[in-house]
């Protein structure tokens, strides 16, 4: 099972954007709950070293340096805000197959 890291709270933009709709901690919990059935999942930036894939909403600029050997998948922030986890999973799986 691949290690997948969702970097959601890396800049003030996402904090503002997400707070307009729901609590970011709730989103993290929902992401962990949904995706843990498919991947080893984390939403903690300190888990970057063990991540096979790093998932970034398109408006995020990560505050951590992501090593070149990490696969970064940028996904529309709207999919996170609408909680369209099925579509997010399809995007991740498509990248996994092509990686």
Structure report:
Helices cover 39% and strands 17% of the residues. The protein is built from four helices and four strands; from the N terminus they run E-H-H-E-E-E-H-H. The protein has a four-stranded parallel beta sheet. The longest helix has 14 residues, at 85-98. It is globular.
Instruction: Determine the number of helices (DSSP H or I, runs of at least 4 residues).
Output: 4
Low-confidence stretches: none
Whole-number radius of gyration? 12 Å
Distance from N terminus to C terminus (CA atoms, Å) equals 15 Å
The total count of strands amounts to 4
Series of secondary-structure elements, N-terminal to C-terminal? EHHEEEHH
Offer a concise description of the structure:
By secondary structure, the chain is α/β, with parallel strands linked by helices. It has helices at 12-19, 24-35, 77-81, 85-98, and strands spanning 3-6, 40-42, 53-57, 71-75. The model has no long low-confidence stretch (mean pLDDT 80).
Q: Keyphrases for this structure?
A:
99 residues, alpha/beta, four-stranded parallel sheet, 4 helices, 4 strands, 39% helix, 17% strand, globular
Topology summary:
Blueprint: E1 3-6, H1 12-19, H2 24-35, E2 40-42, E3 53-57, E4 71-75, H3 77-81, H4 85-98
Parallel strand pairs: 1-2, 1-3, 3-4
